[in-house]
Amino acid sequence: DTEVTQTPKHLVMGMTNKKSLKCEQHMGHRAMYWYKQKAKKPPELMFVYSYEKLSINESVPSRFSPECPNSSLLNLHLHALQPEDSALYLCASSPGTGRDERQYFGPGTRLTVT
Amino acid sequence: QKEVEQNSGPLSVPEGAIASLNCTYSDRGSQSFFWYRQYSGKSPELIMSIYSNGDKEDGRFTAQLNKASQYVSLLIRDSQPSDSATYLCAGAHRSGAGSYQLTFGKGTKLSVIP
Known about the structure:
The complex is a heterodimer of chains A (about 110) and B (about 110).
Chain A: E1 4-7, E2 10-13, E3 18-25, E4 31-37, E5 44-50, E6 53-57, E7 64-70, E8 73-79, E9 87-94, E10 104-105, E11 109-113
Parallel strand pairs in A: 2-11
Antiparallel strand pairs in A: 1-3, 3-8, 4-5, 4-9, 5-6, 7-8, 9-10, 9-11
Chain B: E1 4-6, E2 11-14, E3 19-25, E4 32-38, E5 45-50, E6 54-58, E7 61-66, E8 71-76, E9 85-96, E10 99-104, E11 108-113
Parallel strand pairs in B: 2-11
Antiparallel strand pairs in B: 1-3, 3-8, 4-5, 4-9, 6-7, 7-8, 9-10, 9-11
Protein backbone atom coordinates (compact mmCIF):
# COMPACT_ATOMS: atom_id res chain seq x y z
CA ASP A 1 0.00 0.00 0.00
CA THR A 2 1.51 3.32 -1.10
CA GLU A 3 -1.31 5.60 -0.04
CA VAL A 4 -0.96 9.14 1.18
CA THR A 5 -4.24 10.86 2.02
CA GLN A 6 -4.94 14.59 2.10
CA THR A 7 -7.88 16.61 3.34
CA PRO A 8 -9.71 18.61 2.25
CA LYS A 9 -9.77 17.94 -1.51
CA HIS A 10 -10.81 21.52 -2.22
CA LEU A 11 -10.57 24.67 -0.11
CA VAL A 12 -11.74 28.20 -0.80
CA MET A 13 -10.61 30.80 1.71
CA GLY A 14 -10.53 34.55 2.06
CA MET A 15 -7.36 36.47 2.67
CA THR A 16 -8.16 36.94 6.36
CA ASN A 17 -9.05 33.31 7.09
CA LYS A 18 -7.05 30.71 8.95
CA LYS A 19 -7.26 27.15 7.68
CA SER A 20 -5.23 23.94 7.82
CA LEU A 21 -4.36 21.26 5.31
CA LYS A 22 -3.88 17.73 6.58
CA CYS A 23 -1.82 14.82 5.28
CA GLU A 24 -1.59 11.26 6.59
CA GLN A 25 0.37 8.16 5.64
CA HIS A 26 0.46 4.70 7.22
CA MET A 27 3.44 3.27 5.35
CA GLY A 28 5.85 3.81 8.22
CA HIS A 29 7.64 6.50 6.23
CA ARG A 30 9.81 8.88 8.25
CA ALA A 31 10.21 11.70 5.71
CA MET A 32 7.29 13.89 4.68
CA TYR A 33 7.13 16.80 2.27
CA TRP A 34 4.91 19.72 1.27
CA TYR A 35 4.93 20.90 -2.33
CA LYS A 36 3.10 23.67 -4.14
CA GLN A 37 2.15 23.23 -7.79
CA LYS A 38 0.83 25.94 -10.09
CA ALA A 39 -0.86 25.11 -13.39
CA LYS A 40 1.48 23.73 -16.10
CA LYS A 41 4.48 23.90 -13.72
CA PRO A 42 6.31 21.13 -11.85
CA PRO A 43 5.88 20.77 -8.08
CA GLU A 44 7.94 23.20 -5.99
CA LEU A 45 9.27 21.99 -2.66
CA MET A 46 8.13 23.98 0.36
CA PHE A 47 9.06 21.97 3.48
CA VAL A 48 10.73 18.70 4.40
CA TYR A 49 10.26 16.85 7.69
CA SER A 50 12.65 14.06 8.56
CA TYR A 51 11.91 12.01 11.70
CA GLU A 52 9.36 14.67 12.75
CA LYS A 53 11.95 17.44 12.57
CA LEU A 54 11.84 20.25 10.03
CA SER A 55 14.92 19.80 7.89
CA ILE A 56 14.19 22.10 4.96
CA ASN A 57 12.22 25.33 4.61
CA GLU A 58 12.60 26.57 1.07
CA SER A 59 12.27 30.27 1.96
CA VAL A 60 8.52 29.93 2.25
CA PRO A 61 6.61 33.01 3.56
CA SER A 62 5.59 32.83 7.20
CA ARG A 63 1.90 32.78 6.26
CA PHE A 64 2.54 29.06 5.65
CA SER A 65 3.33 27.18 8.87
CA PRO A 66 4.05 23.43 8.82
CA GLU A 67 3.56 21.05 11.71
CA CYS A 68 4.41 17.38 12.14
CA PRO A 69 2.50 16.09 15.21
CA ASN A 70 3.75 12.52 14.74
CA SER A 71 5.40 10.29 12.19
CA SER A 72 2.13 9.68 10.30
CA LEU A 73 0.69 13.18 10.18
CA LEU A 74 1.69 16.42 8.52
CA ASN A 75 -0.24 19.67 8.68
CA LEU A 76 0.10 22.95 6.83
CA HIS A 77 -1.44 25.93 8.62
CA LEU A 78 -2.50 28.82 6.41
CA HIS A 79 -3.06 32.41 7.51
CA ALA A 80 -3.47 35.70 5.65
CA LEU A 81 -2.86 34.15 2.26
CA GLN A 82 -2.71 36.06 -1.00
CA PRO A 83 -4.56 35.26 -4.24
CA GLU A 84 -1.24 34.20 -5.81
CA ASP A 85 -1.08 31.39 -3.23
CA SER A 86 -3.92 29.65 -5.06
CA ALA A 87 -2.46 26.33 -6.24
CA LEU A 88 -2.51 22.57 -5.79
CA TYR A 89 -0.82 21.68 -2.49
CA LEU A 90 0.74 18.26 -2.50
CA CYS A 91 1.96 16.15 0.38
CA ALA A 92 4.46 13.34 -0.21
CA SER A 93 6.28 10.80 1.89
CA SER A 94 9.34 8.60 1.51
CA PRO A 95 10.82 5.83 3.67
CA GLY A 96 13.56 7.99 5.17
CA THR A 97 15.92 5.04 5.41
CA GLY A 98 18.58 6.70 3.30
CA ARG A 99 18.42 3.75 0.90
CA ASP A 100 15.08 4.30 -0.83
CA GLU A 101 14.31 7.80 -2.03
CA ARG A 102 11.00 7.08 -3.75
CA GLN A 103 8.46 9.76 -2.87
CA TYR A 104 4.75 9.00 -3.02
CA PHE A 105 2.32 11.85 -3.46
CA GLY A 106 -1.13 12.32 -2.01
CA PRO A 107 -4.05 13.48 -4.19
CA GLY A 108 -3.51 17.11 -3.24
CA THR A 109 -5.64 19.96 -1.93
CA ARG A 110 -6.84 22.45 -4.54
CA LEU A 111 -6.65 25.84 -2.76
CA THR A 112 -8.34 28.97 -4.01
CA VAL A 113 -7.70 32.25 -2.19
CA THR A 114 -10.29 34.94 -2.85
CA GLN B 1 22.64 24.80 -9.51
CA LYS B 2 20.74 21.55 -9.76
CA GLU B 3 18.70 21.45 -12.96
CA VAL B 4 16.70 18.84 -14.80
CA GLU B 5 15.83 19.63 -18.39
CA GLN B 6 12.99 18.10 -20.36
CA ASN B 7 11.47 18.88 -23.72
CA SER B 8 8.04 20.25 -22.83
CA GLY B 9 6.46 18.81 -25.97
CA PRO B 10 3.74 18.18 -26.77
CA LEU B 11 4.88 14.79 -28.00
CA SER B 12 2.28 13.05 -30.14
CA VAL B 13 2.51 9.36 -31.00
CA PRO B 14 -0.02 7.03 -32.62
CA GLU B 15 -1.62 4.29 -30.56
CA GLY B 16 0.59 1.20 -30.43
CA ALA B 17 3.82 3.10 -31.11
CA ILE B 18 6.78 3.60 -28.79
CA ALA B 19 6.88 6.92 -26.94
CA SER B 20 10.36 8.14 -26.03
CA LEU B 21 10.75 10.76 -23.30
CA ASN B 22 14.11 12.24 -22.39
CA CYS B 23 15.72 14.37 -19.76
CA THR B 24 19.17 15.62 -18.87
CA TYR B 25 20.47 16.70 -15.49
CA SER B 26 23.26 18.94 -14.31
CA ASP B 27 23.96 17.69 -10.78
CA ARG B 28 26.40 14.77 -10.75
CA GLY B 29 25.52 14.35 -7.06
CA SER B 30 22.06 13.12 -8.01
CA GLN B 31 22.15 9.35 -7.72
CA SER B 32 18.53 8.36 -8.22
CA PHE B 33 16.01 9.30 -10.85
CA PHE B 34 12.27 8.98 -11.08
CA TRP B 35 9.54 9.27 -13.64
CA TYR B 36 6.14 10.50 -12.54
CA ARG B 37 2.97 10.54 -14.62
CA GLN B 38 0.52 13.35 -13.97
CA TYR B 39 -2.94 13.49 -15.46
CA SER B 40 -4.54 16.91 -15.78
CA GLY B 41 -5.86 18.08 -12.41
CA LYS B 42 -4.39 15.07 -10.55
CA SER B 43 -1.29 14.52 -8.45
CA PRO B 44 1.97 12.96 -9.72
CA GLU B 45 2.06 9.17 -9.73
CA LEU B 46 5.41 7.38 -9.46
CA ILE B 47 5.81 4.98 -12.39
CA MET B 48 9.55 4.23 -12.54
CA SER B 49 12.66 4.65 -10.43
CA ILE B 50 16.22 3.99 -11.57
CA TYR B 51 19.41 4.08 -9.51
CA SER B 52 22.18 2.58 -11.65
CA ASN B 53 23.40 2.81 -15.23
CA GLY B 54 21.53 0.75 -17.77
CA ASP B 55 17.95 -0.22 -18.39
CA LYS B 56 15.14 -1.09 -16.02
CA GLU B 57 11.95 -2.59 -17.36
CA ASP B 58 8.51 -2.75 -15.76
CA GLY B 59 5.69 -3.90 -18.00
CA ARG B 60 5.39 -1.51 -20.94
CA PHE B 61 7.81 0.97 -19.35
CA THR B 62 11.61 1.00 -19.65
CA ALA B 63 13.75 3.56 -17.87
CA GLN B 64 17.31 4.16 -19.01
CA LEU B 65 20.08 5.94 -17.11
CA ASN B 66 23.48 7.02 -18.43
CA LYS B 67 25.39 8.79 -15.66
CA ALA B 68 28.39 9.61 -17.86
CA SER B 69 26.13 11.53 -20.25
CA GLN B 70 23.82 12.72 -17.43
CA TYR B 71 20.86 11.45 -19.37
CA VAL B 72 17.65 9.69 -18.32
CA SER B 73 14.94 8.39 -20.59
CA LEU B 74 11.59 6.64 -20.43
CA LEU B 75 10.26 4.41 -23.18
CA ILE B 76 6.59 3.49 -23.28
CA ARG B 77 5.88 0.53 -25.56
CA ASP B 78 2.50 -0.12 -27.18
CA SER B 79 1.32 3.36 -26.22
CA GLN B 80 -2.33 3.65 -25.28
CA PRO B 81 -4.61 6.71 -25.22
CA SER B 82 -4.69 6.27 -21.43
CA ASP B 83 -0.94 7.07 -21.40
CA SER B 84 -1.76 10.64 -22.47
CA ALA B 85 -0.48 12.74 -19.58
CA THR B 86 2.42 14.95 -18.51
CA TYR B 87 5.54 12.98 -17.58
CA LEU B 88 7.84 14.52 -14.98
CA CYS B 89 11.49 13.52 -14.68
CA ALA B 90 13.04 14.06 -11.23
CA GLY B 91 16.50 13.65 -9.75
CA ALA B 92 17.04 13.06 -6.03
CA HIS B 93 19.80 14.42 -3.82
CA ARG B 94 20.15 14.08 -0.08
CA SER B 95 18.65 16.93 1.91
CA GLY B 96 18.91 15.69 5.48
CA ALA B 97 18.93 12.59 7.64
CA GLY B 98 16.98 10.09 5.57
CA SER B 99 15.25 12.68 3.38
CA TYR B 100 15.88 13.51 -0.25
CA GLN B 101 15.05 16.57 -2.27
CA LEU B 102 13.61 16.04 -5.74
CA THR B 103 14.48 18.40 -8.56
CA PHE B 104 11.80 18.17 -11.23
CA GLY B 105 12.00 18.89 -14.90
CA LYS B 106 9.22 20.99 -16.38
CA GLY B 107 7.48 17.89 -17.72
CA THR B 108 6.73 16.54 -21.18
CA LYS B 109 3.13 16.41 -22.33
CA LEU B 110 2.42 13.17 -24.19
CA SER B 111 -0.61 12.68 -26.43
CA VAL B 112 -1.36 9.21 -27.78
CA ILE B 113 -3.58 9.46 -30.84
CA PRO B 114 -6.11 6.62 -31.33
